[in-house]
Specification:
Shape: globular
Helix content: 25-40%
Number of strands: 5
CATH class: Mainly Beta
CATH topology: OB fold (Dihydrolipoamide Acetyltransferase, E2P)
Number of domains: 1
Oligomer: single chain
CATH architecture: Beta Barrel
Length: 166
Amino acid sequence: MKKQAVLLLISLLVGGPAFACSCMPDVAIGDHFERASHVFTAVVTDTRRPTVPDSLRGDSWLDRDRWDSVNRVLEGSFRVTASFKGDAAALPAVYTHLQSVTCGLTLVRGEEYLFFADARGVVGLCGGNVARSSPVYREVMGDLRRYQAELARPMAPPGISAAEDE
């Protein structure tokens, strides 16, 4: 028992920081839509591990003191297939952590995705992003279309319910 306690103490003292991705369950599509600057579908045309672009330097998700950001960032070039919000074509690429343990999104060349990107093109596992090959893709796209239809519906004047207005 004493030997196990010593080994545990050594592993705690020697081991580095641990990181794990933990997403909020059941986040509504509208929340992802509202938080994102760009919502679009696109086919990933290429991926690479770049040097961190100036637009992302100093960002908390790429804190150089927490992880080696240059080696842990994945850049995905893409071809937009549909745009729902923002101007995705103006983004140079999408950026994500390389590993899923740090909430990185797996980007596969030739795969189409629904992206919810911030103003700089940052995407991740917890942001509602989903690959077309995912079993939930159709459901998520349906939720997105319903949400957009709700946004397009005219609002009832104050004091009148939507049911009375119709």
